Amino acid sequence: MKCPGCGFENMPGYSKCFRCGAILSGDQERIDVNPPRMPRWKRPVRAFRRYLRKKVPGGSIEIQNRLPAWLDPSVADTGWFFLSVIPGLGHFIFGRLRQVWLFLCAWVAAVILALVFFGGSLGTFFAVSAAGIHAYIAVSLTAVYRFRGIRERLVLNLVVTFLYLGLYVLILRGGLGIRSMRAADNYPGQNIETGDVLIVTRVFDVDEHIRRGSIVRCRLYHPQRYSNSVVGLGQVTALPGETVSISRKGFIVNGVSLSAEAFPVPGYIHTDTQIEITLQDGVYFVNAPYNLNYVGRRFVQNYIHRMCCISGENILGKARVVWIPFEKTAIINDIDIQGIQ
């Protein structure tokens, strides 16, 4: 409440001015002494900061004392590298997580974007970015203080970036058995066109998971090397023990014609005469795109048995999802003889 005599701002409830003692009337202008409330969008940020201060006050001395020598950055020169395989773990142990939490958020965002665009050029860009951020977090633990020059620090970051990028690939392909491949041919029955990015997973039991119409990753026969040394995608047309006939019109399996739209005959095995092949146990008929420069067209009939008859041990994986383009993203289902999923 403002004093009419001296203009001093008095606290609400005062009957006299604190400065000059003048009587304050009740109809004087009142002021709001309550501070403005925090906007709603800032409250989660405040809660997160309070959580960090509560959970990460100063590191864990108990964990630090139990670290083996090869993981302790103060003892081993490479301890920071292994301790930061999980981004931010070293900073968490030594109570310095607040220094890199923004970079951790950026790393999580880069990983998510790399998975969203997995198999495309943008996916590669974000994967390299994630590895670079990961490397910076690791180097900033202790290694950065051992190199004074900008060139040395830059080289160190680049080397660690490629090491972590290799670790990502090893985990994704070697550990989880997941990779991306581009379709080299059209498979109308599953709405797959040339250039689409497919997610392929490892197959442990071929007999259980491979069906007619499955898009498989397999070792294909190389006519010039006389071995199954080319890895590519193909469509399973016939299963072990079945008899498949090939002509320009389409495939016939055990006397039943397959849908020409769902099981198109590749151009390199178009023949004027019908060829019949009986598959042995554990052997699948897989039609995959081949480069006709490998063999002359008149010699193709002699190579069909080797090109298309793929043993189960040479089937490495199965395409599960059409990933890119996004408007076609869908699970790849096996199809029956009539091309129905």
From TrEMBL:
<feature type="transmembrane region" description="Helical">
    <location>
        <begin position="154"/>
        <end position="172"/>
    </location>
</feature>
<dbReference type="InterPro" id="IPR036286">
    <property type="entry name" value="LexA/Signal_pep-like_sf"/>
</dbReference>
<protein>
    <recommendedName>
        <fullName>Signal peptidase I</fullName>
    </recommendedName>
</protein>
<keyword id="KW-1133">Transmembrane helix</keyword>
<feature type="transmembrane region" description="Helical">
    <location>
        <begin position="101"/>
        <end position="119"/>
    </location>
</feature>
<feature type="transmembrane region" description="Helical">
    <location>
        <begin position="125"/>
        <end position="147"/>
    </location>
</feature>
<keyword id="KW-0812">Transmembrane</keyword>
<keyword id="KW-0472">Membrane</keyword>
<feature type="transmembrane region" description="Helical">
    <location>
        <begin position="78"/>
        <end position="94"/>
    </location>
</feature>
